[in-house]
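Appendix B. One record, verbatim.
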Amino acid sequence: MTQKLRWGIIGCAQIATGSVMPAIQESETGIIAAVASRGLEKSSAVAAEFGIGKAYGSYEELLADEEIDAVYIPLPNHLHRQWVIRAAEAGKHVLCEKPIALNSTEAAEMVEACRKAGVHLAEAYMYRHHPRIAELREIISRGDIGELRSIRGTFTYNDAGDTSNIRFKSAWGGGSLYDVGCYPLSAARLLFGAEPEAVTVQAIFSPEHDNVDMMASGLVEFPGGVSLIFDCGMWAYNRQLLEVLGTEGRIEIPMPFNARFEDAEFFVHTGGEVSRFATTGANPYVRQADNFAAAVFGDKPLVADDDPVQSMKLIEACLESARRRERISLL
């Protein structure tokens, strides 16, 4: 019989009810034992919708429940630090939505709190759990496209008309780098297998959107002279693409961050020919839940413990570069 991880959900955001909660229920290793909101009416409605046995009208009540092993935190970005640390102190393993914090100092505090409590902490980059990512890394490591030279990543959408959106609240961790730029940034770190040395970023900071970065583009320098060229935005035409360029070929990955089943293909260009790879499809949120549980039960985590800290160092350097309009070193 598969060992089950008993989950508690702290907050009823759309990412929780629309993606993560259904995935936990579909997973082999997880069950949702409780859900909490700031009010019992909301959490009770969500519990009824998902057939969950317990609903709480405060996050504190859920953390006090001894029948909860792990929590998922989909709260606004500025609340992540507080509730990750409180969950760790309550002895709960933590899956926290990305970006995990507002800066690397917060992220380091969160990582240390979880280490001290002996609980597993993971940042919810679900795309990293899709089987396609493992296949891409294998192709790169085999040298099928030669030595890596550059990665190009894009993730944009247009929701600028909704000025009440929490993604447009500066103090809450709003902006395109936090929301979608973090995806190509994390993908480059993963595929290069290295941490960046410097960044140069330009951004549109919009006064009508609380001066968050509504669009950003930049260059991220990695060791050995290789780089990520990226753009991200919440005020641009919808698109996603990841391209990995080598000395002997390139890999083109459509929909790199939201692929599930039928949209999980990618293309390898070598020797003047194009090979289409119909990779194994999967719901990355389900794989994320099962991989998280595996790490809790003793398997090696997908990424290093300090990955959230390195991720936030890069994001904050990008923001600093955009605000100061100059190259920022990470060394």
